[in-house]
Amino acid sequence: MRKVIYTACLCWFAISCFAQAEPDLMAKVDKVKMNQWVDSVFDAMSYEERIGQLFMVVVDPKSDARNIQKMMRYINEIHIGGILFQKGNPVTQAEVCNRAQKASRVPLFISLDGEWGLSMRLNGTTRFPKNMMLGAIEDNNLITEYGKEVARQCKELGIQINFAPDVDVNSNVENPVIGLRSFGEDPNAVADKGIAYAKGLEGMGVISVSKHFPGHGDTSDDSHKTLPSVFHSQARLDSVELLPFKRYVDNGFAGVMTGHLYVPSLDNTPNLPASLSYKIITGLLKDKWGFKGLCFTDALAMKGATTKKADNPSVKALLAGNDILLAPATPINDFSAVKEAIDEGILSLEEVEAKCLKILRYKYITGLNQYSPVKVQGLSKRLNSPHAAWLAAKLNAEAITVLKNESDVLPLKQLGKKKIAALAIGGEVGNEFQAMLNRYDTVACFSIGRNSTAAYIQNVYNRLAGYDIIICSVHTVRIPESLALRQLAAKKELIYAFFTLPYFCKDYKNSATKAKALVIGYENTPLAQEYAAQVIFGGIGAKGKLPVSIPGLYYSGTGIFTEKTRLGYHEPEEMGADAGRLDEIDLIVSEGLSKKAFPGCQVLVAKDGMVIYDKSFGRYEFSGTQDVVDNSVYDLASASKAAGTLLAVMKAYDEKKFTLNSKIGDFVPELKGSNKQNLPVKDLLYHQSGLTPSINFYLDAIDRNSYKGSLYSNTKNTSHPVRFDSNTYVRNDFRYYPDLVSDKKKPGFTTEVARNFYISDSFKDTIIQDIKSSRLGTRGKYVYSCINFILLKMMVENQMKKPMDRLLHDDFYAGLGAWHTTYNPLRVMDTLQIVPTEDDQFVRRQLLRGYVHDEAAAFQGGVSGNAGLFSNANDLAKVMQLFLNQGVYGGERYLSEETCRLFTQSKSPTCRRGLGFDKPVVGNVKASPCSPQTPVSVYGHTGFTGTCFWVDPDNQMIYIFLSNRVNPSRANNKLSSLDIRTRIQDAIYKAIK
């Protein structure tokens, strides 16, 4: 029985070794039609043209006369069969390609040396990761998608062949030429990745070419400069270097590139490269493995292909069994040498013609029988599609690898309790990594470069001593680990992020061993840096596995998974949204800007915990030069009610400081004895308390004897020269009571209203008296009132024994990393970061920048229940995500799930309002503040200055719009008349549906 099994195994092995492996591209083609075309072309070709098909020359994608003349000479004199373009830009390459194809009698193969896509050779194209980064990705379906996208882009450029994948197994740490070009050190993993990539390429009709057969991974020399040697046994080669190529061939792919490598176990002819070895190419690859696809030499101009002076490398390559001669150093001389070798009988004419026929067949297979010129118009846009942008981002996100995570320090927690700094070694301050870190929290940024002085470096480390967490990013292999860094790792919570070849971590072994966490980003690219930063803060979870071993530190396959705990940042396609439809937002905003509805704005959309659209538009002022940027801070106006006051109310409710049916007079004792004392808290939140909409507290500070007549007028005249709103003009010749208003801060006058404008600290008593004596309307009827929230703020402060702004900072914003979200922003940030609102020539007589626009809030010192909060879209999104997450953010609970559900889901039985939130009106577009597409579950708020946010729990979506439409005047109502905010929300729903 054993003998039978043994014999069967031998038979299977023999069949597998000698089977003729016809590539799938060839197997699937209609051979009758193919042969008709091939025969017709071949029969019309001259002897020289048939030889020329075997040559693929290098051409610069330049349209200058000299370059075109050189290319035309190759086409006309040696009848080349293909072109490999060098570095350039896609539009010029397309134009040169079109000229070449038009000039050639037989369609040309156009090839790409694009291991990581077009960007390896062409600028202005999508930058995909290199192979080692891809080797960290667990999901090989993504690698196939990547291959498909590279193929799509190739076809847009008229390219039929991509010299990829590189399936060299990089087992040599010192390899000078492969490194990041390899998928890793595990032969089967390399094979899996290479096959996945090739599957994507050839599935779209582009020939894949695996390289560098029989394996360049364990070399210490560069074949561009010399002939590297691989001194491994046959058994080792079979199990490591050759394994990916064998599996590639067995899986039916069409191209193999032979490398300039001396491999004595396969052919011990002294100094003979594998690319010129009959034993290796014909004996092993073609005969033993049965490969019937196209064999390409590596570039014959490389030093590794150098032969004896008496031998021509192109002739030697053809004798060895190669089909296509890639990039010979002297194409015209080599063409003559091949002709001469045929004439002398060294080369068989029949074999040369057989190679020509094979090449023509693959030209048919790749569609060159129906060649059409590359469409140049719109090429760049087609190449850089939203799908390509998503795929590049997705590959980077999936590859980021965490090798160490002591005490689960990642993702970072308790942001409000720790000071964080970022140190870039070999990178600039404010690089993409540090910029992304600062989207999550306030992170102080430092850098050390190769040319930094000792004094400068010492100063940096001295300053870092004041921080609790140091996030150290390494962007270069040219700066060694320092003693100061080792000492820092021993004293602080150090988190490493390496944007280098993983092997370089061994040079930082001492400090890496002491670090709390270690993240590998593989490449020093913007996307790698951005997603590594997201892993550190929990915007995405880490999923990558190390594809190579780091000597003395980590083995191949190491990788710690981490959780997503905060908002992440990704392309729209990641969440199933249509990026093209989201572009409609840009058009709507552009209309608003052109019609002067607002000087500038921010728009943010987040879905399923990912920010998928975040753009800033316009300028701070219509006549200004300062552009709005992502960290520009806006006055939220009434959106403060839900993003600020309501958070504090919910916190107090969680702590059982009141019930919804509690009477407001029980918490604001000044209301005792008034008709306001028994108003239920619930009615204030629903805006059905009967309280007056607003009170102009500033009137109490104006000396009524300082002017005659009315303060307001419905027409402009000499007494009322200043426009207040669309229907009102005001006078500005009045004076304030000197015992209530001061132009400088002094004892008794510490409440700042605006620049050089202080109100008496006693004025707060005037405010509560005004509220107490104000008219009270019908309880239960919806009347939107700022007074409701002014009283709620007073209630919270009395119950929580803490000023509301301090409570919100300590209990929410600091922990959320929302450090741009604050009252009185001038106390914590530069004026230039704050977008101005109105040029108020009435009450405060100045341009308001950093001072709250709402007068009621201003006369309370900038902190009020109805207004006063400033923020940017990114920070505001964190607060909204807290609501969506039912009180949890960053892995920490801020509010109970029950309280969040109560406040976000409740709705008044008599109007559209929720408990502090605004809501859509179903079936009444005119009355609703939202798009008609919004579900009934949506909640949010708008603001007078031109702001809004809406949270959609059904679609797990956040929409934020921030603008300063009141600059320079609140009389500008174009934001509403153009319906900008609602139209943008419409566009968002179209994009996600």
From TrEMBL:
Domain Glycoside hydrolase family 3 N-terminal: residue ranges: 48-361
GO molecular function: beta-N-acetylhexosaminidase activity
Keyword Signal: yes
Pfam families referenced in this protein's UniProt entry, alphabetically: Beta-lactamase (PF00144), Glyco_hydro_3 (PF00933)
Keyword Repeat: no
Record-linked Gene3D superfamilies: DD-peptidase/beta-lactamase superfamily, Glycoside hydrolase family 3 C-terminal domain, Glycoside hydrolase, family 3, N-terminal domain
Stated family: Belongs to the glycosyl hydrolase 3 family.
Protein name in the entry: beta-N-acetylhexosaminidase
Species the sequence originates in: Parabacteroides chinchillae
Lineage: Bacteria, Pseudomonadati, Bacteroidota, Bacteroidia, Bacteroidales
